[in-house]
């Protein structure tokens, strides 16, 4: 099982869009995927038409295996389930380690409920907190969308600094440029500079600034559903290919 | 809630509007219909799937198995003849226990139209998914709806299942899928129920049985001709054997002349089937033969089975040509007509004896004869007596089965069970002996004038014969043990009370 956290310490960079579209790409490739909406705003659940769960406000939620598995909802897409938002983060690290442990009650409950997830995608809230620290430890890969602007650059520097200061493995950090506008010189220059500075951290694939991604809110579906041939949809597919298979496509 | 598909069989076409209305806050959305294709309902000749309330449907590229309100689906391009030949999958797993010797064949066909649908909640979120298959035959229409539970949407699933159950028509109206589509189909039964009354004249009982089994035999002819599986020929032979045993065991029911003529006629019908059946048995037992001898003796056995296979296809070819001749058809039609009415027959002195009294006398006499013979069998008596005992037991069994409806079912079951055990041992004893003889004959046929035969072949056959002989000896001991049980005071008492005691 692989845990992918979609994280940024800056808001509005396309975390939720990335989580939803990546989750869809993994599921479409045949993986069993659980998308956990850890952002209290519940945006990824909204995109997938899954309502926030009322029951999930209890702090002891992660202790209670039955309640956890009960609140998982199937999305409209084969192989993609959603854990809706509204959860607190206490015991989150315990929860994730249990999910990995084959003999844990949580794992057993998931298997008996008919699913043994191969990929877990965490849509994380934008801050530094105990939750984010837990996520940094638990995740195999931390995907960080970065808008090529000065402020985002600063946020990414802070994130790397945080990893250094806390002696966390930076290898987990997988950044990519998000909401890129090719005609803005500032975007191109920032991308150039950051790729040089963090040579190993950035993926080749990037996600363009696209109206189709904004339209996810209207359509309440991943981009590939309502605009499968759009630049945005293709870009997410490329991002998935590079992340999962290390395939870098030209153009 | 387990994430299993659930399946509903709804008569006729699906009432979309009514269903949508009944769902209230949920909405029904269909995907585009797929082009219509053909379907076949698969089962074996005696419809053992149908009898166990299962339906196996083959459409272009897929197999569906409906059982107990659940549907299994498996992609399957090939047309598997036997269940064990199907590719692994949930359908094959669900067919476990299907008779290994029986082939799957189409027992009904028509057109099928598939559509997928989704049940949407508010936010247009899919809460239940499903498929619908409209099956149409010349005689009827039925819609098979399969729904899939989606995690976290138990309530919608429950609602949809409840509404679909209503459409099925409830317990009173629900019928198996096959009956909606093919209400007029005749169902083959290898052993149909034959009513017998205590006071019925014996000649009428005999005619009923013979007429019934002649019809059963005829229902197996097409399967032999098309070589669907080996059980057609087997059932054909069993039916004719039952006819023959009525003729020979119901002594004095027909005139001596007619009895003799019919005996000749039916052995004439059986005779051409014997060789093909023997070869079928050898070929079905092929693996067990190979297991009897060490691998270094297999070479000769391989050659032998190649020969058997060739001979089998020749024998079956001859038989199926015979079945297709006009003269055979005429002969069977003539016999069917003869046994259509007891008045067509020449009555013997026992023709009008009431069935119950006659049956008691026949069975009691046969039982005493078998027991007398069996009690005389010791380790030193020749095999011949054991063979005779087998034949007597067989006759006893046939008589008891023909007249079973006249007697207490529970007592009968006890006796038959113990008789069957004895017969199983006797059957094996006989098989081992017949097989040795056949093997010796086979070598004889493959020996040249100088008395030489292929070394590999003789090695294999020699190995087989010695093992078979050991087994035959062991089986003989078991025959004696089984007879002891059959001859126990309890069973003796049952026989006496059923067939010999004066009615109070």
TrEMBL record, chain A:
AAA domain mapped to chain residues: 1-167
Domain of life: Bacteria
One protein family per Pfam: AAA_31
PANTHER family: P-LOOP CONTAINING NUCLEOSIDE TRIPHOSPHATE HYDROLASE (PTHR13696), PARA FAMILY PROTEIN CT_582 (PTHR13696:SF52)
Protein name in the entry: Sporulation initiation inhibitor protein soj
TrEMBL record, chain B:
InterPro entries membership: CHAD_dom, CHAD_dom_sf
Domain CHAD: 199-504
Full protein name: CHAD domain-containing protein
């Amino acid at each position: 099982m692989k845990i992918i956290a979609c994280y940024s310490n800056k808001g509005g960079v396309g975390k939720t869009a990335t989580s939803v579209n990546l989750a869809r790409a993994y599921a479409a490739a045949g993986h069993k995927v659980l998308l956990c909406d850890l952002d209290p705003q519940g945006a990824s659940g909204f995109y997938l038409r899954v309502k926030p769960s009322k029951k999930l406000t209890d702090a002891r939620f992660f202790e209670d295996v039955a309640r956890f598995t009960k609140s998982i909802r199937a999305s409209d897409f084969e192989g993609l389930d959603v854990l809706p938002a509204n959860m607190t983060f206490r015991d989150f690290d315990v929860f994730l380690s249990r999910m990995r442990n084959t003999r844990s009650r949580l794992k057993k409950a998931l298997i008996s409920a008919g699913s043994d997830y191969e990929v877990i995608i965490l849509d994380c809230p934008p801050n530094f907190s105990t939750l984010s620290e837990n996520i940094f430890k638990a995740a195999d890969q931390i995907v960080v969308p970065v808008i090529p602007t000065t402020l985002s650059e600063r946020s990414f520097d802070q994130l790397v600094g945080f990893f250094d200061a806390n002696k966390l493995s930076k290898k987990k950090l997988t950044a990519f440029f998000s909401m890129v506008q090719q005609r803005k010189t500032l975007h191109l220059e920032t991308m150039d500079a950051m790729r040089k500075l963090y040579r190993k951290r950035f993926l080749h694939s990037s996600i363009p600034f696209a109206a189709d991604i904004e339209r996810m809110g209207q359509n309440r579906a991943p981009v590939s559903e309502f605009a499968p041939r759009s630049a945005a949809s293709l870009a997410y597919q490329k991002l998935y290919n590079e992340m999962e298979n290390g395939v870098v496509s030209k153009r | 809630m387990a994430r299993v598909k659930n399946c509903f069989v709804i008569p006729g076409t699906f009432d979309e509007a009514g269903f949508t209305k009944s769902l209230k806050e949920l909405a029904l959305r269909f995907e585009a219909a797929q082009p219509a294709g053909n379907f076949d309902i698969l089962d074996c000749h005696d419809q053992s799937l149908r009898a166990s309330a299962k339906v196996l449907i083959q459409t272009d590229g897929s197999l569906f198995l409906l059982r107990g309100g659940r549907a299994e689906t498996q992609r399957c391009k090939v047309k598997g003849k036997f269940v064990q030949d199907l590719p692994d999958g949930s359908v094959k797993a669900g067919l476990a226990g299907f008779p290994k010797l029986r082939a799957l064949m189409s027992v009904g066909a028509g057109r099928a139209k598939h559509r997928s649908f989704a049940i949407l909640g508010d936010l247009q979120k899919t809460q239940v998914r499903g498929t619908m298959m409209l099956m149409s035959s010349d005689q009827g229409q039925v819609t098979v709806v399969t729904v899939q539970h989606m995690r976290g949407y138990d309530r919608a699933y429950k609602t949809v299942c409840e509404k679909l159950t209503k459409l099925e028509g409830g317990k009173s109206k629900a019928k198996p899928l096959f009956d909606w589509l093919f209400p007029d189909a005749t169902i083959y039964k290898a052993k149909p129920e034959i009513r017998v009354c205590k006071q019925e004249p014996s000649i009428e009982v005999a005619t009923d049985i013979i007429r019934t089994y002649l019809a059963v035999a005829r229902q197996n002819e097409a399967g032999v001709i098309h070589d669907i599986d080996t059980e057609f020929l087997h059932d054909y032979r069993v039916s004719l054997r039952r006819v023959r045993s009525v003729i020979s065991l119901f002594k004095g029911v027909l005139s001596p002349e007619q009895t003799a003529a019919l005996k000749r006629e039916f052995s004439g019908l059986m005779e051409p089937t014997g060789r093909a059946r023997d070869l079928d048995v050898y070929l079905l037992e092929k693996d067990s033969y190979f297991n009897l001898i060490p691998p270094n003796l297999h070479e000769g056995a391989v050659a032998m089975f190649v020969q058997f296979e060739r001979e089998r296809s020749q024998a079956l070819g001859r038989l199926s040509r015979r079945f297709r001749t006009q003269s055979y058809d005429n002969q069977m039609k003539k016999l069917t007509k003869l046994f259509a009415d007891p008045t067509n027959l020449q009555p013997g002195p026992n023709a009008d004896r009431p069935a119950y009294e006659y049956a008691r006398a026949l069975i009691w006499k046969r039982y005493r004869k078998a027991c007398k013979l069996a009690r005389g069998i010791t380790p030193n008596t020749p095999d011949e007596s054991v063979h005779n005992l087998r034949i007597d037991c067989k006759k006893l069994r046939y008589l008891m089965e023909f007249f079973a409806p006249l007697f207490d079912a529970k007592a009968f079951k006890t006796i038959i069970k113990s008789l069957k055990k004895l017969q199983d041992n006797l059957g094996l004893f006989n098989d081992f002996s017949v097989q040795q003889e056949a093997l010796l004959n086979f070598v004889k046929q493959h020996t040249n004038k100088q008395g030489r035969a292929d070394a590999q072949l003789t090695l294999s056959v020699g190995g087989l014969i010695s093992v078979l002989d050991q087994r035959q000896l062991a089986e003989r001991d078991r025959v004696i043990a089984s007879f002891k049980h059959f001859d126990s005071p309890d069973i003796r008492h049952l026989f006496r009370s059923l067939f010999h005691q004066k009615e109070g």
